[in-house]
Structure to design on (686 residues):
DNA sequence: GCATTTAGTTTACGCGCGTAAATTTTTTAT
DNA sequence: ATAAAAAATTTACGCGCGTAAACTAAATGC
């Protein structure tokens, strides 16, 4: 087995009988060498435990084969899932993904970009917080390295954006709710960290107007990422004060909705479509747990697989052509209504 | 500002007026140079945008300042949280953490170790699946690189283990449940992926015996990490068949409990301590969502902050002394009972 | 079978930094 | 002030690999 410990490509060239430059070509692209040569190399690889020193490999190359993937918060299952999809897409394309979480903290996002700067990635897939304060950092980063945004858009920044069409998805939900019962009011954060929330509010207003109903917006005080907590506290407050304008509450995202559902349960208000129900509650995002809330949550499923793969392939195209695209593309995927028991 | 683009340490030496070897010392340990020199360097750093090329830095060094952190599944909030704590501990100690998720897949765990092998980390903090099949891979990996296990133990493998004392935590819960109502039966996976589940079963049996009650174990069919789904389907089956031996169900972990709670709701069985309740349900782990289940979940909180920090500091000690510890240490932290409304 | 194309070999240099040895400068102790 | 200690500088080499140039061997086309 381990006939001899191979220390570097030179030694591997000696034992495999292939010259070092050819080996170098092989490791950069196995298909760039003749098949017979490739087989000889791969035979030798089974006999000797050698693999190129990543640090030496990346030292000279201006662009590595690394791709940075930055998401706002891996503790949020949505980003955990979409991050995973992006990783897989990168691996499939022969890149090495480096998944970084900003842990709900814009400062950490800057730190992550700073870290990536020194890792010289070929490109970056970034789901930004989208606050104005980040804009300059991201633009400055983008000067040197191609960046494709996903999930949250920053107007006119970076090579492209891929996300969900909130206007379509919210309209879909509003339409359903209006058709099946009282028109919904909207429950959201007062100062949302995510620009999608603003899009959704806008979409709600337009959609309600289109359907000829009076919109009602209820905003929760609170900061940070404890959406369930905020939804539970503030939603509970609105419920117990009978403040919601209608019996139907559309929450800006599932995590808020999960909080509101827990508050409703605590307050003894039955949630659902039945005649004995006091409230209907809907969400947005199809959070993994929304199937297991009580009752299960009616929501919008984002097509995160499509988003992840499109974002990745958009970046790959930029990397392949090695030039910035003339036009900044914005791709929006439709959401799907997931009907469960809460609305 | 950017007076000149600095390309390497040589050029930075020229503009800063400090010799390259001294700069090298500084970047490896800022305190290894005289204070006045350090201040001159840091002044220059504010004027010029230079930082050492990570790849060149790590190329020669046998041991990098990287620390690999491998968890079974970042989509599971428990690992997301504890992974974060570990990251912070590494950064605080001057190391660069590389957080990798095995995505619920033992093969991926092997791939992650393979990846880490080429990144030459100083050490690794590993939360393993703990299946027997991984043992050899991990042991082989551990031959070259120090590894501290956390969360899940593998007997006699690696430098040390840090986790929760399941015997203490389960006993705490069993004691509470017996004292406050009917003695609990145990609900768990038939073929658990996590060795803690086996510990918890053992602990349950011993604890029930100690309290003089007959133990009852109910096992859910199913594979993978969809614990909520399995808990909901299988738990629902047991509930609707009235199969649980007592009205109190202790679930092996919170995610199963979340599934069982959703099944109970679906079946119209009220859960809680009150006289009108049909079931009491308890969990283990204090999952972030267990506060927002309906009703909120009584559970055991693992001290993951303590676990993460102890695991990290144990590894650092090994790295500092630069020799393997004579004795393999196992550190177990106690769990805390979190009383909520479900039991 | 021969010319042409394609692939591999030899040789050589450079990347950015760690680091050792010898020397000079600066600080500290007496 | 002077000797000793500490720190910085100069010089030089090596790490493992990418890569270019000139050359040689093998595969391909007709």
């Amino acid at each position: 087995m381990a006939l001899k410990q191979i220390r570097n490509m030179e030694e591997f060239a000696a034992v495999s009988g292939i010259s070092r430059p050819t080996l170098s070509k092989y490791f950069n692209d196995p298909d760039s060498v003749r098949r017979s040569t490739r087989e000889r190399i791969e035979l030798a690889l089974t006999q000797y435990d050698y693999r190129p020193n990543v640090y030496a490999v990346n030292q000279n190359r201006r662009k590595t084969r690394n791709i940075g993937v930055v998401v706002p918060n891996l503790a949020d299952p949505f980003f955990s899932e979409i991050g995973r999809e992006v990783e897989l897409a990168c691996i499939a394309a022969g890149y090495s993904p480096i998944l970084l979480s900003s842990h709900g903290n814009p400062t950490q996002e800057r730190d992550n970009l700073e870290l990536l700067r020194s890792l010289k990635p070929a490109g970056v897939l970034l789901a930004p917080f989208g606050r104005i304060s980040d804009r300059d950092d991201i633009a400055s980063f983008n000067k040197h390295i191609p960046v494709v945004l996903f999930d949250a858009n920053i107007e006119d920044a970076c090579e492209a954006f891929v996300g969900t069409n909130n206007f379509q998805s919210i309209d879909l939900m509003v339409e359903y709710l209006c058709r099946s019962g009282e028109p919904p009011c909207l429950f959201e954060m007062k100062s949302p960290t995510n620009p999608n929330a603003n899009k959704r509010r806008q979409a709600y207003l337009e959609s309600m107007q289109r359907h000829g109903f009076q919109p009602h917006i209820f905003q929760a005080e609170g900061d940070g990422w404890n959406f369930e907590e905020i939804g539970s506290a503030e939603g509970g407050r609105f419920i117990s004060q009978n403040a919601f304008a209608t019996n139907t509450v559309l929450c800006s995202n599932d995590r808020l909705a999960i909080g509101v559902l827990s508050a409703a349960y605590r307050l003894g208000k039955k949630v659902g479509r039945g005649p004995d129900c006091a409230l209907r509650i809907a969400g947005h995002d199809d959070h993994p747990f929304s199937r297991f809330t009580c009752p299960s949550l009616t929501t919008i499923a984002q097509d995160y697989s499509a988003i992840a793969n499109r974002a990745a392939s958009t970046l790959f195209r930029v990397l392949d052509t090695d030039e910035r695209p003339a036009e900044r593309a914005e791709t929006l995927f439709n959401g799907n209504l997931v009907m469960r028991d809460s609305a």
